[in-house]
Amino acid sequence: MRNFNEMRYFSIIILIFISFLSFTGCNIINPSEKIPAYLHIDSFELRGNYDSSGTLSHSITDVWVVIDNEFIGAFELPADIPVLKEGSHKLILKAGIKENGISNTRLPYPFYAPYISTINLQANKTDTIRPVINYNIGGYKMPFNEDYENPNYAFVKSTESTITPEVTDQKGFVFEGNHSLIARLIKVNDIFQIESIQLYQLPRANAVFLELNYKTNIVIEVGYYAVSASQTYQHLVLSLNPTKTWKKIYINFGGEVSYEPSDYFFRIFLGAIKYTASDTSVVQLDNIKLLYLE
Question: What is the residue-wise DSSP string for 160-189?
Answer without folding.
Answer: T-SS--EEE--TTS-SSSS-EEEEEE-STT
